[in-house]
């Protein structure tokens, strides 16, 4: 098992586009469905795997373009170090001063090691200066515990 890191920052309005953050239903709309429903399904089915928006289910980062992988680690500690370094880069921009507390950030990194070592995924989100949002994720891969059938984005 290994872990992939993902980072997204962008406008909160883009992050709020939940339809593009959810994987499409495995079955298309039934015959006779309205043209709007069919068009929306096609749009989501084609855009979901290509968009850099964070998925609502962390494991689905694995179906996103491989160019979005910010790092890969065999060791949960390495992934947690990356997470800590990203938090350090963005801490001053956090909208909430309580989220900037060094003890809180250290606790997130310690918690990340345990969660990743157990084969789980990790997803963190922070409001930055308005109206921006930061999404950080570390996804366990080969296999992913939540969705074992998802392929590794790096082909390994």
Report the helical percentage.
Answer: 25-40%
Mean pLDDT equals 93
Biggest sheet strand line-up: 2-1-4-3
User: How many strands appear in the DSSP assignment?
Assistant: 4
- The separation of the N and C termini measures 10 Å
Largest sheet: 4 strands, antiparallel
Number of helices: 4
Based on Cα principal axes, name the global outline: globular
The proportion of strand residues reads: 15-25%
Which structural class is indicated by helix and strand composition?
Answer: alpha+beta
Order of helices and strands: EHHEHHEE
Which residue ranges are poorly predicted, with pLDDT under 50 across at least 5 consecutive positions?
Answer: none
- Alpha-carbon Rg, integer: 17 Å
Walk me through what this model shows.
The protein is an alpha+beta fold. 31% of the residues lie in helices and 19% in strands. The chain contains 4 helices and 4 strands. It has a 4-stranded antiparallel beta sheet with strand order 2-1-4-3. It is globular and about 55 Å long.
Question: How are the secondary structure elements laid out?
Answer:
Elements: E1 2-11, H1 12-15, H2 35-47, E2 71-73, H3 76-90, H4 102-117, E3 122-127, E4 132-141
Helix pairs in contact: 3-4
Notable traits:
156 residues, alpha+beta, four-stranded antiparallel sheet, 4 helices, 31% helix, 19% strand
Brief overview:
By secondary structure, the protein is α+β, with helices and mostly antiparallel strands.
């Amino acid at each position: 098992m290994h872990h992939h890191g993902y980072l997204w920052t962008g406008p909160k309005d883009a992050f709020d586009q939940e339809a593009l953050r959810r994987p499409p239903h495995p079955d298309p709309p039934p015959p006779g469905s309205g043209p709007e429903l069919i068009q929306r399904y096609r749009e989501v089915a084609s855009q979901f795997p290509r968009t850099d928006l964070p998925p609502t289910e962390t494991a689905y980062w694995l179906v996103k373009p491989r160019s979005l992988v910010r790092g890969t680690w065999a060791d949960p500690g390495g992934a947690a170090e990356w997470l800590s370094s990203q938090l350090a880069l963005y801490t001053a921009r956090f909208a909430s001063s309580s989220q900037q507390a060094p003890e809180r950030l250290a606790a997130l990194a310690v918690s990340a090691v345990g969660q990743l070592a157990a084969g789980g995924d990790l997803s963190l989100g922070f409001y930055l200066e308005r109206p921006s949002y930061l999404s950080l994720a570390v996804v366990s891969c080969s296999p992913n515990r939540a969705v074992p059938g998802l392929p590794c984005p790096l082909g390994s």
